[in-house]
Amino acid sequence: MRGRSWLGAALVLGAQLRALWLAAAVEVHTAKEVVAVNGTNQRLKCTFSSSSPVGQQLSVSWNFQPEDLGAHEPVFYYLKEPYEPPSGRFKDRVTWDGNIERNDVSIIIWNLKPSDNGTFTCQVTNWPDVYGTIGEVRLRVVQKVNFSEIHFLAVAIGSASVLMVIVVTAVIICRQRRRKARDRRLEAADTE
Predict the structure, then answer these.
(1) Domain ranges of the chain
(2) E runs forming strands in 46-161
(3) For residues 117 and 112, what is the distance between their CA atoms, to the nearest angstrom?
């Protein structure tokens, strides 16, 4: 009977340790979708949380999956210091914009092109937290900014303001003309 108790306790302890191991994984947080204008620069934000203190073995890897579902491409790597890609579509177009002390591992993509449409992944490992979620950001590069509701509202308010100024000006001018015409009539009546 003692052997069975020991085996049961070991199984329960193993399940608890596994639950703790899964709870200790790195969690990565990103914006799900980003829209940027062709030719501009865009910061791809990625933050993380880890149950372990940030250590010297923290590593970050950014990868890219083109919209046409071509092969994954490395974008950026960080281990103790940032490493820009030595070749590929993002060579000389990506820079580190993170702050490890603040759990920020963001990058900036420069001079966006329509060929940059696709999904960027951000993966963080912080020993012993080597497992966890992978953050994904879908980037859409557009030719020009779409007319949003805020732009429409700004145009409507601006137009209404201009119209109000025109109406007030017209009313003032009409009153002044009427007053001048009345004054002329009174002068003409006085002279008669």
Answers:
(1) 21-142, 145-191
(2) 46-49, 59-66, 73-79, 82-83, 94-96, 107-109, 118-125, 135-142
(3) 9
What are the start-end ranges of the H helices in 24-148? none
pLDDT tens for the chain, 192 residues: list them.
455 554 444 444 444 444 444 445 889 999 999 999 999 999 999 999 988 888 888 999 999 999 887 788 999 999 999 998 889 899 999 999 999 989 999 999 999 999 999 999 999 988 888 778 899 999 999 987 656 666 777 788 888 899 999 999 999 999 999 998 888 888 877 776
Model confidence, pTM: 0.62
Residue 94 contacts residue 86 (beta carbons within 8 Å): no
Task: Report residue 92: phi and psi, to 5°.
Answer: 65, 15
- Which pair of tokens denotes residue 190? 């006085």
CATH number of 21-142: 2.60.40.10
